[in-house]
Every structure is written in C-alpha cells, then in structure tokens.
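Re: the 378-residue chain
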Amino acid sequence: MPEGVRNDRYVAIAARIAGDDNRVRLVLDFERKPDFTLSYLENPFRVIVDLPETVFAFPDDALQPRGLISSVRYGMSGAGRARMVFEFASPARMELVETTEEAGGAIHRLVLDAVAVDREAFSAQVAKSVWTDAAVDATNGKPDDASGDTLTIVIDAGHGGIDGGAEGPSGSMEKDVTLAFAEAFKSALEAEDGIRVAMTRTDDAFLSLSARVRKAREERADLLISLHADSINIKSLRGATVYTLSDRASDAVAQSLADQENSGDAIVGASLENAPEAIATILVDLARTETRVFSAGLAQQVLNSFEGQVKLINNPLRHAGFKVLQAPDVPSVLVEMGYLSNHEDEKLLTDDEWRQNTARLLAQSVQNYRKTILAGRR
C-alpha cells in the first residue's frame, strides 16, 4: 500500500489524561505493543513522542489538555512516522514510562507520567534528546507537512454492461449516470494536488463485485469510492446518502439497497467465491480498526462538503454489508448520489451542471480528508 493506508500501521484505540498542575498521567491503548521514543524541546516546553505509522482511532476529545498539559496534537509526521506533541504549562519530565498488557494481551497500554521539574532540569533533558528524525523542526517541533504525499483514489462507477442497474421514470439507466459522474469526478480530482486517480471501468463494461474490490487492491488504493443512483419503492425518497461497511445494516432502507447491489453478479452468474480472501471471512477483516476509522472519516468529509449544497436524505450517514466495500485494507465508501426512482432526483442526476458541481464538492471532500490524514493534523 502507499503511505496513506497500510496493514502494518499501529492503532491507538483509546487515550486519556488525568492529573493536576504538578503531575499528569497519559494513558494510550494500542492493539499491539508500540515502539516509541521520547524527546524534549523548549520555547515552549514540550515532550515529543515519536511512533511508527499510527492510526489515532480514539475520539477527538479523548486527549483534552489538563493540569501540566496545556496543549496536545498528534498525527502523521512523514512517511512511515507518527508523532504526538504534549506541550507543558511549565517545565516537566516523564518520570514513569512503561508498557503493560491488558485484557489477556489484546490491549497494549502505554503509560507516561509527567511531573513538574525546574527549568534547569528540563534544559538538561533537552540537551540529552537525540533527534534521528529529519522531520523535526527545531524551532517549533511540529510534525512535518506530508502534503507532498500522494493518495491513490479508485473510483467505482456502479453497474455496467448487461447489468444496467436502476432505471428512472424517464428511462435513465444507472450504469450511464454513474459512469458520467465518475468521469466528472475523475476530472475534478485530477485538478487537486497530491491525488492519483484510477477507475474500475471507463466504458460500458460489466465488472463483478469481486473484480471491483480486486481492482482497488491491485491499484494499491488509499480509498475506494463507489458511485450509485439506485431505485427504491419509496418514490418520494430523494437526496444523497453515504454508506460505509457494516455486518449489520443501519436501517431497512440500507439493508434493501445492500441486498439489491449485492445481487448484481447474479445477472451473469458471477460468483464471489473465488475472490481473494473469500467473502465468507471478509467481515472478520472488517474488525481492522484502521480501515473502519478511515472509511468513517472520509464519509464524514463527504457529508460536510455536501451539506447545504447537495440535498441529503434524513440521517445521510448509513451503513450496511455492501460487498463492493469489503476490501479489508482499503477504506471505502458508497455514495448514493440520489434515487433514480424519484423524478426530481433523476432530473438532477442527468443534469451536466449539477454533475460538475457535485463532482467538485466530492473532490474537495477527498482533499479535505487527505489533508486531515496525511498532513498530521486533527
């Protein structure tokens, strides 16, 4: 995989801070024992925790500044690296640093106790700090900018060939709508910095669901975005929806659409049984926290970009067992751009101006996601 998403990443699944102006305890829970180094910087007083590439999967508000800790930031700090920066309100040092195993070895806990010291003692720690990481800016100690890293995005235009997908009241075919939007989306993405684009199909060709997943993995994709415009029995339902993968659907509509999409291969007798890492076991891989986190992050960025610009259904972030989203190592979302079963949505979905504008919004959401993940800022 490119540097954006890799299977060997560490995952920090929980974090907390407790303490006062004299002593603070930092606790970080990982899926496996972390390798780390500690270094100190002054002006202002900081301790830097350098880690291998790490997904910070705990809630954004888990590490709120408290007592001795006046500021916290964390994220990617370049290729294969992550960094946590804890700024102190006054000089301090890490008195206790240890890792323990919890929950029968399922959790590896890193505990760091910060205690107040005088300025002379802090300066001595700074002098002893050994920097082997070229990413350090000795002036401010901030993680370096990873904006030069390239994300590979695979765009999946739903349906194709003999599988036409949904059909609108005016005769619009889903396979044509998704391909036209995919082309506009590709153009919009290529106008953004740091993004490489590949498509699962570029013409009216049938692709099995497993072939779409395989394409994403072969391209070493950082993201797979699958585009759809389905029909539903509720003709009044309209607006965009963003779906992520789950073994249990969020609602009846999500389940209905997943069933509808997952049955597409049956049209030509295609089978998923021979797909790499057979689908029978793929939901076990769904437990890979980093893939789940990245997928959810992208989904939220899409909704943020669409808000107020593209009509959304109620509760637009949903989940279900879509097979096209089941690559265990490729964060994936399915964007339901609208419903061809609704006459108003059909008019929008086939309107070139709407298509271009919405494609730009979707491309911007990917760029926002890229900056959030790769530039190392939360």
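Residues 151-374 form a domain with the Aminopeptidase fold (CATH 3.40.630.40).
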